[in-house]
Design goal:
alpha/beta, single chain, 21% strand, globular, disordered N terminus, 517 residues, binds N-(aminocarbonyl)-beta-alanine, binds zinc ion
Length: 517
């Protein structure tokens, strides 16, 4: 176990905090359903009181949050730490990745266990737990990929949803032909199984067969550079797969979660599908989509262009980021993740002469919140409550971590961000906390970033100084039958201490509980 800076010594006895009592005073508490001026008192990793004129024991550390927002820690529902794919391994492991997460205000991540075709899902799950448990600086949960189909896979899905393993979501791929891709029959079986188990089916929605054919044609024509990546998989192929996934989910009577929605066409397909779906459909987009665009693929520097390669790709249409931010604000999309999947330059160079060999993935876990704040809150597209909904609360609800996570309220875990809406910084690989040597948001100025980040009661970003502890985070079991997804009445929230009335109920805010008709 190690600590990132010299500031806190970790004996293994009191890793949690130099003090287990903390008062955040004079801030404005923001939840997804309203804001209020209130103090937050934390003890032993739990929020104990939210309100004014609190009676606090002596020896409590006080953080002055005057002029700051006090929000639930971010939940990034989509990361790939220490993932081996396309002949390379992601640079951000569970230590560097969660360190970067915490630096940016994210206090829970959900990573993907991705078994190879033919591999036991439980074996892969155990590998992931082994990689993560000793390294995570914040709490984490796991989705499991279903990359092939057989009766044994079905059985293992059932086992994984038990209390022993604590998995409630499974990702199926409609792309990465011959690697992770499933055909429609298998997809339907997997979704039916998710519905039976009251787990959540997730899809990577792109038409992998047509992409494979397009790649063959481009390579045959001598088109080999990074720009061909997006030429081989345009918006239409994303929108078609989104529509097909929705049709299959409807047939399978399964709720559906579409990961990394990257285009206006895909958002439109989701909206059209919602009018016929009998069960909810959720859409997640990425910091990359809101924060940058596909014009970078045309950069003559291979490193630069290849660094932006992910799937589905960034779109060349420069109006995409704004449209996606608006879709998040209007509840056409419900969450923003990062799909953090970082590769060094030497790994991206595997595709120097053949774009199909460029390892897919970008950074985002650190800058996700600041990018969205800059592009959507500072521009008036969404208010702070909706920001909390899409960066934290909706993920907690969907993955059944609510109200333990995603809420600043008495009884919830003390994962809290003190957000300074005036803090200015320039994003750069020179100062970020990732292991990787490139940042797709390089040079972007953002106003608004965390000043303090509290993880389970421990101050891990302390007035801008990062003090994470390796291995401090814990695995979160996510129970099936999320009331938010499967419609049962939500569990009673803990009774909050009396507080001053919420004085702001923003018009555009919705937590997106029901799909739009
Ligand atoms: O390019 C991406 N998205 N890399 C990670 C794997 C995936 O499809 O999420
Ligand atoms: Zn994917
Ligand atoms: Zn460059
Ligand atoms: Zn991913």
């Amino acid at each position: 176990m190690t600590v990132d800076t010299t500031a806190t010594s970790v004996s293994g006895i009191n890793i949690k905090s130099s003090q287990n009592r903390l008062l955040i005073k004079n801030g404005r508490v923001v939840n997804d359903d309203g804001m209020e001026d209130a103090d937050v008192y934390i003890e032993d990793g739990i929020i104990k009181q939210v309100g004014r004129n609190l009676i606090i024991p002596g020896g409590t550390r006080t953080i002055d949050a005057t002029g700051k927002l006090v929000m639930p820690g971010g939940i990034d529902p989509h990361t790939h730490f220490e993932l081996e794919m396309m002949g390379a391994k992601t640079v951000d492991d569970f230590y560097k990745g969660t360190r970067a997460a915490v630096a940016g205000g994210t206090t829970t991540i959900i990573d993907f266990v991705l078994p190879q075709k033919g591999q036991s899902l439980i074996e892969a799950y155990n590998n992931w737990r082994q990689k993560a448990d000793g390294k995570v600086c914040c709490d984490y949960a796991l989705h499991v990929g279903v990359t092939w189909w057989s009766p044994s896979v079905k059985k293992e899905m059932e086992q994984l949803t038990s209390e022993q393993y604590g998995v409630n979501s499974f990702k199926m791929f409609m792309a990465y032909k011959d690697v992770w891709m499933m055909n429609d029959y298998d997809l339907c079986c997997a979704m039916e199984t998710c519905a039976d188990l009251k787990a959540l089916a997730q899809v990577h929605a792109e038409n992998g067969s047509i992409i494979a054919r397009n790649c063959e044609k481009l390579l045959a024509a001598g088109v080999r550079g990074p720009d061909a990546h997006q030429l081989s998989r345009d918006e239409e192929l994303e929108a078609e797969a989104v529509n097909r996934a929705c049709v299959i989910a409807n047939q399978a009577k399964s709720p559906l979660y579409v990961v990394h929605v990257m285009s206006k066409s895909a958002v439109q397909a989701l909206q059209i599908a919602r009018t016929r779906q009998k069960l909810p459909v959720y859409g997640e987009t990425l910091a990359a989509t809101v924060g940058t665009d596909g014009t970078h693929y045309k950069n003559s520097c291979f490193r630069h262009a290849a660094a932006h390669v992910l799937s589905p790709p960034l779109r060349p249409d420069p109006s995409t980021p704004q449209a996606i931010a608006e879709a998040l604000a209007d509840d056409h999309l419900q969450l923003i993740g990062s799909d953090n999947c970082t590769f060094h330059e030497k790994d991206k160079e595997l595709g120097k002469d053949d774009f199909t060999k460029i390892p897919n993935g970008v950074n985002g876990v650190e800058d996700r919140m600041a990018i969205l704040w800059q592009k959507a809150v500072n521009t008036g597209v969404m208010d702070p409550c909706r920001f909390v909904a899409v960066t934290s609360s909706n993920a907690a609800r969907i993955f059944n971590l609510w109200p333990q996570k995603g809420r600043v309220e008495a009884g919830s875990d003390a994962d809290v961000v003190v957000w300074d809406p005036r803090l200015q910084r320039t994003i750069s690989a020179a100062t970020h906390h990732h292991g990787v040597d490139f940042n797709i948001f390089e040079g972007q100025d953002v106003v608004g970033s965390p000043q303090y980040v509290i993880v389970n009661g421990r101050v891990c970003l302390d007035d801008g100084e990062l003090r994470v502890a390796e291995g401090y985070g814990k695995f979160l079991k996510t129970p099936v039958n999320s009331p938010y997804v499967y419609g049962a009445p939500p569990a009673a929230a803990p009774e909050p201490e009396p507080v001053s009335p919420a004085i702001h109920t923003p018009s555009r805010v919705t937590n997106g509980n029901t799909p739009s008709p």
